[in-house]
Design goal:
Helix content: 10-25%
Structural class: alpha/beta
Largest sheet: 6 strands, mixed
Number of helices: 10
Strand order of the largest sheet: 12-15-11-16-19-20
Order of helices and strands: HHEEHEEEHEHEEEEEHEEEEEHEHEEHEH
Shape: elongated
Length: 548
């Protein structure tokens, strides 16, 4: 059966204007509908046609690139769940006029966990949320029924995330400090009270009167309590380097404990207490998250040197390319396939475990300009993404002037970044100095200095996930000379190759200017990325370095 109100294809005309489809209006509006239908078909056919001729993978049109929302830094404030309040309840049964108290304890608050997983690639989701709160514990109930625990929060972060603590507010620690001061004790001395009356810590029976409060004998205020899980949380201040996928999450902040029900305050003088304690407040921690990409090879080069084109030539990455500087504004990662399981593999490589390697990853970062450590261009903060790379590949444009000078400029910025990073980690660390006097009389007579021990920076037994200090100059590296197909670049390449040979023989100072450097052979590989020529030599060289 045909519809009563036939519509034009792709329109909602019968739904919006059904009166137009009466018999009289249909005959009068047929020319108009034909005109609209023709206009609709012509618009559809025109919009389906491309406005330009598409290019290939290495020379794509301007809009043929991936637009991924990427953020490598985020500041997150986490709140552990507060504990539920205790319950004021009494047994109510037949023939029992005044039953004993049977109020349950409050539930514990939710915990805050963090876990590094493979599926995540950016911190933009956490940067938008900004605040994460665990669930509050439920209040206790009658018949000695305890409250339910609050819901936990697990923070999923990409592999390679570094976590640093900025601020911590622990209500339990503050309360313990205040209680010691109120008791007239100095810091570090343990005591059992008594504490002053604090109305904010107690729950009173709804039917209690002011006279009952004035004549009631309240017990000592209970000491601040911590959850048993607090012993398993990361030691403050938090400093984690999540450089590997984690099977189990790590506890950052344990939820607060719940309040006590009125049975806990039964005494000879007060057999039916009409008060209970409130739950503890959860702690607040402000964290700084910093993502450092994990890749086998990191590309470092000047702007418009051909890094993104090289990445496209070696992988199926859709990084943006163009003939202007700073085309890349965010890091890109490409995967080079060594064995696609169709015939013989391109190169044979193995992991440390002996398992055959089927691919390796390349990280492309925005270009570095001269004096980038002085915040010129896009700065040097993006170098943290190649800090974890196992191999560094310096991309030099042979058609953009002296290649040796460009290589030295890049190594200068890399060295400045490493020095600034080491200084930053030393400032973030909280050194613990342990002083010990002379061990014996002979040491004192010989005027030996005292022993001072400072905790080392990096992973320790207490915190095995602490971040390590960067060491970029000691990584294997090589040079990729791009645009080698242009005329007049041969002499520039030969000068670059001669300089690298002198560095390998020790006749010239290492371009980084440091002592602990990689001392093996450094190769310069000429390529034409736009044509895809010479890229297979890069794969062979990288596979050899990864195996060693």
């Amino acid at each position: 059966m045909p519809p009563r109100c036939p519509a034009l294809p792709g329109t909602l005309t019968p739904f919006l204007y059904p009166f137009l489809f009466s018999n009289a209006a249909k005959r009068a509006s047929q020319p108009l509908f034909r005109q609209l239908q023709c206009r609709h078909e012509s618009t559809t056919s025109e919009s389906s046609q491309p406005k330009y001729e598409e290019g290939n993978h290495l020379n794509p049109p301007p809009n043929e690139y991936s637009r991924s929302v990427f953020s490598d830094k985020a500041t997150v404030t986490v709140y552990a769940g507060s504990g539920g309040h205790g319950c004021i309840s009494f047994l109510r049964e037949k023939y029992i006029e005044k039953g004993p108290p049977n109020g349950g304890n409050g539930g514990s608050g939710g915990n805050i966990y963090i876990q590094a997983v493979r599926g995540e690639t950016s911190l933009h989701k956490l940067g938008r949320r900004n605040i994460l709160k665990a669930g509050r514990g439920k209040n206790g109930q009658g018949k000695t029924r305890g409250g339910e625990r609050g819901e936990d929060v697990v923070i999923m972060v990409p592999v390679g995330t570094v976590v640093h603590e900025i601020e911590r507010i622990d209500p339990v620690a503050i309360e313990e400090h205040n209680q010691k001061l109120e008791a007239g004790k100095e810091d570090g001395e343990e005591t059992q009270g008594p504490w002053k009356w604090d109305r904010e810590k107690w729950l009173l029976y709804p039917a209690i009167t002011k006279e009952d409060i004035a004549t009631a004998e309240f017990p000592k205020l209970p000491r601040a309590r911590r959850s048993a899980l607090a012993m398993t949380q990361v030691k403050a201040p938090i400093a984690l380097d999540l450089s590997a996928p984690m099977e189990r999450p790590v506890l950052l902040a344990a939820g607060a404990v719940g309040g006590l029900g009125n049975p806990h305050f039964v005494s000879k003088t007060v057999p039916r207490p009409k008060f209970a304690s409130k739950g503890e407040e959860g702690m607040k921690i402000t964290l700084e998250l910093e993502l450092k990409l994990l890749a086998d090879v990191g590309l470092v080069g000047l702007p418009n040197a051909g890094k993104s084109t090289l990445l496209r030539a070696m992988s199926k990455s859709r990084a943006r390319v163009g003939d202007w500087a700073f085309t890349t504004l965010q890091p890109n990662v490409g995967t080079v396939v060594l064995d696609d399981h169709n015939g013989r593999p391109k190169s044979q490589a193995f992991y440390e475990t002996g398992e055959p390697r089927t691919n390796y990853t390349i990280a492309d970062i925005p270009g570095l300009v001269e004096d980038a450590h002085l915040d010129r261009g896009l700065g040097i903060s993006f170098l943290r993404h190649v800090e974890r790379a196992r191999i560094l590949a310096f991309v030099i444009d042979l058609n953009a002037g002296d290649a040796v000078r460009a290589l030295k400029a890049l190594w200068k910025e890399v060295g400045e970044y490493e020095r600034m990073k080491i200084q930053e980690e030393k400032e973030k660390a909280d050194p613990i100095v342990e002083w010990s006097p002379f061990r014996s009389t002979q040491d004192a007579l010989q005027n030996k200095p005292e022993t001072i021990i400072i905790n080392p920076i990096g992973p320790t037994l207490d915190n095995p996930l602490a971040p390590e200090l960067p060491s970029i100059a000691g990584k294997p590296w090589f040079v990729v000379a791009t645009k080698a197909d242009l005329s007049g670049t041969r002499e520039n390449f030969l000068a670059l190759k001669e300089y690298l040979e002198e560095v390998g023989r020790g006749e010239c100072e290492h371009p980084s200017g440091q002592n602990k450097v990689w001392e093996e052979k450094v190769e310069a590989i000429p390529v034409s990325a736009i044509n895809g020529h010479g890229t297979e030599k890069i794969t062979d060289w990288v596979v050899g370095l990864l195996d060693n």
